[in-house]
Amino acid sequence: MIAGDGADRVKEGLGYFAPAVYQLCRFHLARKIRECLRGRALERVFAARKDPARLLEEARNAVAAALDPEAKRGAEELLSYLLANREGLEDYRRRVNVEGVELRGLGAIESNVDKIVSGRMKKRGMSWTVEGARNMLAVLTLKANGSLDAAAQVVWGPDYPEGSPTPRLPIDVSVSQAQNQCPKSATHRVGTRSATPAETVSRRRPHAGDESGFAKTK
After folding, report:
1. 15, 82: one domain
2. What is the C-alpha separation between 82 and 7, in angstroms, rounded?
3. pLDDT in tens, 138-157
4. In a shared domain, residues 53 and 21
5. Does residue 206 form part of some domain?
6. How wide is the angle at C-alpha 177 spanned by C-alphas 173 and 180, nearest 5°?
7. E strand or H helix that includes residue 4
8. Average pLDDT over residues 16-22
9. What pLDDT score was predicted for residue 68?
């Protein structure tokens, strides 16, 4: 599932992560409704935000009922926004069925992006090459999914982190071992290519001063 605020660049991710589905962020939807409408129209549209068909109907009604140019512009802006994100109005949990998996809500997307990605990639004066950014994002993805230790043990051996930081296998052998030994959930799509745990972690040795457990890749 790919969630976003409606920006085209977010929706482009569907081309990289097929068969993912798009979900319009509920926070941004609610904020857009509040920005564009006032009074009774705001109340009716906001109350319908969880029902896509009713939401679009109420948004059209708001356009038709607008009494002044400013109110009409706001209602038309909201309707255009909803139509542009029509595919993401329905809760993805009603569209996706994964047997044995409890699907969760979106949560605080902005906060999660800031803590998991932005804080490590953009702040404190950091700058990255494209290759280095992809490597670090792959490591952060493994860490967030709880697969980082498993990936490191494939590359550095089952005694890691107590053992030597020198990879026990050449990179090409490590990649093969990772594909066979790590669970499928530990292989993630990063950028325009797939990154296996061994590909990611075997490129850099551990560094005690780095918060992710791996040396910075710049």
Report:
1. yes
2. 12
3. 887 888 888 888 888 777 77
4. yes
5. no
6. 145
7. strand 2-4
8. 86
9. 93
Per residue in 82-124, pLDDT (tens digit) is 999 999 999 988 888 888 888 887 766 667 677 667 776 777 7
Domain count, the chain: 2
Residues 154 and 81 reside in one and the same domain: no
Contact predicate 87/22, CB 8 Å: yes
Residue 122 belongs to domain spanning: 109-201
CA distances 51 to 3, 62, 94, 155, 164, Å, are 18, 16, 11, 48, 56
The answer to whether position 213 is within a domain reads: no
**Alpha carbons 6 and 28: distance in angstroms, whole number:** 8
- Alpha-carbon distance of 28 to 78, in angstroms, equals 12
Say yes or no: 143 and 87 in one domain: no
Hey, what are 149's tokens? 């230790």
Q: Which of 16-20, 23-27, 121-125 has the lowest mean pLDDT?
A: 121-125
CA distance 88 to 100: 24
In a domain, 10, yes or no: yes
Residues 166, 82 share a domain = no
Q: Is residue 210 part of a domain?
A: no
**Which residues have CB under 8 Å from 7's CB, separation 6+?**
none
Cβ-Cβ contacts under 8 Å for 195 (sequence gap 6 or more): 134, 135, 138, 187, 188, 189
